[in-house]
Design goal:
heterotrimer; B: about 90 residues; three-stranded antiparallel β-sheet; globular; C: about 210 residues; mainly beta; Sulfite Oxidase, Chain A, domain 2; six-stranded mixed β-sheet; five-stranded mixed β-sheet; 3 helices
């Protein structure tokens, strides 16, 4: 079943929105019903395509934020000058439909057999595939230890806040912190990683996802800490043509 | 606008090559560095998509959609090792 | 080449980039929609040539004339208000620039060329007939909306040729190569139209 995610016809299908969840003031999750959905692997994404009546189309990739076996969910952050994200986060209602292609991706994936220990580093909406990975790890009763380091601007910007409140998750709030906050208050740097990431000699498997500058900085620091470059998977998110 | 990476065009690459390509090992025609397409720098939004070497910025792949047809030029790569597509 | 299939689905209420509803249709070429945004589209990393290393040259095999940044900025500069049309379907009306007319630059060299190849930092090129960069139709611009042109949008200087699709208005321009015959530039080599008239919707070769 999962094999169809790596080879075979990848055509556009119709996805219908069955539920929307406003995760934060700028971020919304959309649960989708996709007929003949073959299932997905943790870390994969879908391409979403919107079409106007006069034939104009816009396409964007979004990570699947749900675990294998769950209905596909995408989490979209509204970009200020975005073309697609304002529509998905403000206009879309349950019952609406758009085209989807996927699941896609053979690189940024975690399967239980891949082992660990797992170190996940996410910036902003880069946390979406991490939720899929963490849920999959739980559902598959994996014994692999895992830690998520998650950078957000403020507490209100933490996506999946209730779900990511456990001891496996270390937050940093870079712009403002609530009263009594004892966690990190700065952007992820080598010092934070030295304290939070699993030691390199444990041969961790690292996943880094978020804005390009976040990913490049964190991946570079992990290599400097001794992580094997081949055991660091990166996925960069960002605007695809607007400003 | 910062570059993304090969993950962002995984769907397009799948469509054009017929299978998962982000794990394909590409060799840069400029500096001969090898690495997965997922880790190449990708520039989007222009009239086409441009895939460049992370180290030397040499153009590896250009993809253009002309009247609904995807056209791809991989001339900038000196080698591409296709991943094992499992059924 | 591969044609992809689709479902024909239209997304309720999706209208694409934020549009300016009040645009005069006579100013909007076919297939375009007007936006207030100014999208940044690029084929490569943003160059950052320091001004003390920046030059603009006109060449035809050999260099005919070169200007350093101060010399270029000392040339007569004029305001330009133009509508711009990107082949990716957005148009932006009444954009305001300041720059040196290409006529002013070409006046300093002797030539009989029929075409130019525009040369830019990072290796980007685009081609144009000489008639389309002369007669007050093209500028090398250095100022956008009253501010020095920022790097992301092609600064310190870019070409502006508003009557053609905006990929011809090459960013990070460094010179013009005079040619007797038309030669495809970067996007033209990959299938975009050699001329690129938005009013005849000349997006791709063969249009």
């Amino acid at each position: 079943m999962a094999g169809t995610a790596l080879r075979g016809r990848l055509s556009w299908r119709v996805a219908t929105v069955t539920a929307v969840v406003d995760e934060t003031p700028r971020v919304r999750s959309l649960q989708l019903d996709i007929p003949d959905w073959p299932g997905h692997l943790a870390g994969q994404h879908v391409d979403v395509r919107l079409a106007t009546e006069d034939g104009y189309r816009a396409e964007r990739p979004y990570s699947i934020a749900s675990a294998p076996g769950e209905a596909p969910v995408i989490t979209v952050e509204r970009l200020e000058h975005g073309e697609v994200s304002p529509y998905l986060t403000e206009d879309v209602r349950p019952g609406d439909a758009f085209e989807i292609r996927g699941p896609i991706g053979g690189y940024f994936l975690w399967r239980p057999d891949d082992g660990g220990p797992l170190f996940l580093a996410a910036g902003g909406s880069g946390v979406a595939p991490m939720r899929a990975i963490l849920r999959h790890r739980r559902h598959s009763m994996s014994k692999v230890k895992a830690r998520l380091l998650y950078s957000s601007r403020t507490v209100e910007d933490i996506i999946y806040r209730a779900e990511l409140a456990g001891e496996e998750v270390v937050h940093t709030l870079t712009r403002a912190q609530p009263p009594g906050w004892t966690g990190y208050t700065r952007r992820v740097d080598a010092g934070v990683l030295r304290e939070v990431a699993w030691p390199a000699d444990e041969q961790p498997l690292a996943f880094v996802c978020g804005p390009t500058s976040f990913v490049e900085s964190v991946a570079g620091d992990l290599v400097a800490l001794g992580y094997a470059p081949g055991r660091i998977k990166t996925e960069r998110f960002g605007a695809t043509g607007g400003r | 606008m910062e570059a993304l990476d090969g993950n962002a065009i995984a769907g397009v690459l799948y469509q054009v090559f017929g299978g998962e390509m982000t794990t394909a090992q590409a060799e840069c025609g400029g500096c001969r560095t090898r690495g997965p397409l997922a880790e190449c720098k990708v520039y989007l939004g222009g009239p086409g998509l441009v895939v460049r070497c992370r180290l030397c910025h040499n153009i590896g792949i250009v993809l253009v959609e002309v009247r609904g047809m995807m056209c791809v030029d991989v001339g900038g790569l000196s080698d591409v090792e296709l991943p094992a597509w499992r059924w | 080449m591969k044609r992809e299939t689709d479902t024909g689905l239209v997304s309720r209420g999706f209208r694409g980039r934020r549009r300016s509803a009040s645009a005069d249709p006579a100013r909007v070429p076919p297939g375009q929609s007007v936006t207030r945004d100014f999208p940044v589209l690029s084929a490569g990393p943003t160059p950052h040539t320091p001004l003390d290393q920046w030059t603009f040259s006109i060449e035809n095999g050999g260099v005919l004339r070169t200007w350093m940044w101060e010399e270029f900025r000392a040339l007569p500069s004029e305001p330009v208000t133009a509508d711009i049309h990107c082949v990716t379907r957005w148009s932006k009306l009444d954009t305001n620039w300041q720059g040196v007319s290409v006529d002013t630059l070409l006046a300093e060299v002797d030539h009989h060329a029929d075409y130019v190849l525009v040369l830019c930092d990072g290796g980007y090129t685009t081609n144009l007939p000489i008639d389309d960069v002369t007669g007050g139709k093209a500028w090398v611009v250095h100022t956008y909306e009253g501010e020095p042109l920022d790097h992301e949008h092609g600064g310190p200087a870019r070409l502006l040729v508003p009557h053609l699709y905006f990929w011809k208005s090459a960013k990070w321009v460094r010179g013009l190569r005079l040619l007797d015959e038309d030669e495809p530039g970067f996007w033209e080599t990959y299938g975009y139209h050699m001329y690129g008239d938005p009013w005849r919707e000349q997006r791709y070769a063969g249009d």
